[in-house]
Every structure is written in C-alpha cells, then in structure tokens.
Design brief:
21% strand; four-stranded antiparallel beta sheet; 2 domains; 30% helix; 333 residues; alpha/beta; Rossmann fold; 10 helices
C-alpha cells in the first residue's frame, strides 16, 4: 500500500424527508452513514452495491459536489471541507468525475470542441490556440480524431460520448477521478474498450480511481480493492482476489453468487426481500431483515467492521470475537 490520496473518516450524509403534517417528527434518509476508508495513490478502488445503496451520493460527497452532514474528507491529509472558495476551485483541477449517462452530462447545444476545452477556460489555462491544440491531443488519447471537435453530442454513439466525457475529465491532468457507473450503459464489447482505455490513461497520468458500479464482473476485472455498500454503509472491504474468492458478509456472498453458474443459483436466496431504509432512530445491522443468519443481537446492535485478514474487513456479528455461537453458525453457511 502507498500513501493515501483520499481519506474518508466517519462520513454521514442525511437527507431530510418531507413531513406529512407539521406535528410529525423530522425523519432522515441515511444516504451515507458512518463511512470510513482510504484510497491509495495509483489504485483502482471499486464501490459496489444495489441501486439505492448510496454509492453515487458517496462519490459526490467526496468531491464536495454535495456537502456532508458530518465527518471529514481529506485529500493528501488536508480537510477539503475547510477549503475556501479559491482553494476549492484550485482543488477541482486535481479531482474529476465521469458520470453514468454521458449524453446527459454533455451540453447538446455546444460542440465537442467547446465541451472539451471548457475546463481550460474555467481555470484560465493557456490561450485560444493552446486550448484547441490541447483538446485535439486529448481526443486522440481517448481514440477520437480532430474531426470530432466540430460535432455535437447527438451525432455520436454511446461509446463515443463516454470517450468525450473521459477526455473532459483528464484534460486538466487530475490525480483522482470518480467514475460513476462509467460503462453500465454501454454494450459489452464497448465496455471492454473503455475499461482498457481507462487503464491506459491511469498508467500515463498516474491516476487514482474510485470506480462505482453494480456490475461485479467489471469491478473484479478493473479494481485492486472492493468495498461493498449497503444502505449507506460499507459492510465489507478487501482486495479483489480475496473478496471474490472468500466473501464473508452474507450480503457480499449473495452479490457474488449472482455471477456464478446456473447450477449454483440457489445461493441467490441469500438476497431475498427488498432493500429499504430504516427510520433515523433505529440502531441495528442494516441487513438483519434480509439475512437468514440473523441473530437477536443483529436487531439491536450495529456490527463494527473488523479485520478478518491482512487487508480484509467485514461488519457482521457472525465474526464477532466474543460470539460463542460463531463456529456453529458459520458451519451452516
């Protein structure tokens, strides 16, 4: 492991729910709840989980596109929440995001050249000639030629639009990029091209990625480490090889069973039921109502993440050191 470039400490993001009447108590959706982890320089860190688990919100909070309720985000040891407007703008040169829907993130009224050059305009980098030349260079790096400068988003395929989004993200030569479902809307063959492109750019620019996805096949191929998110909390984290071969949390096992063969599909029963959020006054394991191994303690005490290997942590009462029934419970699994 190298020096952390991003450190997230006890991060919370709550959204206030609308009250039906003025007498109701305030209730909140815990989109991100007690999240802590760090990203090491040069790694590809995967964040997986069902839709609604809080992955995208977490990515946006890290980049300060939305403000956290509490907790801290540090970039190279500096608390980004304390940045002034000037410092925050300067920091934007070092961090970027690639959104899930490239068409929605591109201005349909502006040419591709204008879109790719825009970050240079915002940060007042170079003159008009330099910006155009730099935009052409970046387009070539993502596999497109200079003719795309005068085209518009509606003239491009999904894969080409995503390449434009990537070009816009790297033109400032950042250090850290959040990729939010960056290939989920693309065909499988195009996905492979984009993933290989991202790896090539990572080597050239020494990039660090936070790769958000629900596709475990993609994440296992692309990422060094994986964190599993459920109802706003990271319930398991570890190196890709170890997490894929030996998942610990029942939810993680259910997720990984979804990419196994048809003969092993019985394991999918681990994820029966629907994802839903608790009210803000309940302390429990977020997965207890869907877990076939749930115990009494799971309904009243939230498990803390603990080490089960060198770089492997899991938040589950099945692995509590003081759990006397641990061995018998795990044999059932």
């Amino acid at each position: 492991m190298t020096t952390p470039i991003i450190e997230v400490e006890d991060l919370h993001k709550f959204f206030k729910q609308a009250r039906k009447n003025s007498l109701d108590k305030n209730k909140y959706v815990r989109a991100v709840n007690e999240v802590s982890f760090s990203l090491c320089e040069g790694e590809s860190f995967g964040l997986v989980g069902e839709s609604g688990s809080g992955k995208s919100t977490l990515g946006q909070v890290i980049l300060q596109l939305i403000k956290q309720t509490s907790g801290t985000v540090k970039y190279r040891g500096k608390n980004v929440s304390s940045f002034t407007k000037k410092e925050l703008k300067a920091w934007r040169r070092q961090v970027q995001i690639v959104f899930q829907n490239p068409y929605a993130s591109l201005n349909p009224k502006k040419s591709i050249g204008w879109t790719v050059e825009e970050p240079l305009h915002i940060h007042k980098i170079g003159d008009r000639v330099f910006r155009r030349q730099r935009a052409i260079e970046v387009l070539e790096e993502v596999g497109l030629d200079h003719s795309f400068m005068d085209r518009y988003p509606h003239e491009l395929s999904g894969g080409q639009r995503q390449r434009i989004a990537i070009a816009t993200a790297i033109i400032l030569e950042p250090e850290f990029i959040v990729i939010d479902e960056g290939v989920s809307a693309l065909d499988v063959s195009v996905q492979a091209q984009i993933l290989n492109l991202l790896k090539k750019l990572q080597r050239k620019y020494k990039l660090t990625y936070l790769f958000i996805s629900h596709d475990l096949n993609v994440v296992q191929y692309f990422c060094n480490r994986i964190a599993v998110m459920y109802l706003g909390e990271i319930i398991e984290i570890g190196k890709t090889v170890e997490l894929g071969s030996s998942p610990k949390h029942p939810y993680t096992k259910g997720l990984f069973s979804s990419i196994l063969s048809i003969e092993e599909a019985d394991e999918l029963k681990l994820l029966e039921g629907d994802l839903h959020r608790f009210s803000n006054d309940i302390e429990a394991c977020p997965f207890h109502d869907r877990c076939k191994f749930a115990m009494d303690i799971c309904q009243s005490v939230k498990p803390k993440r603990q080490k089960v290997g060198n770089y492997h942590e899991v938040g589950c009462h099945l692995y509590d050191i003081k759990n006397e029934n641990k061995e018998s419970i795990l044999k059932v699994n």
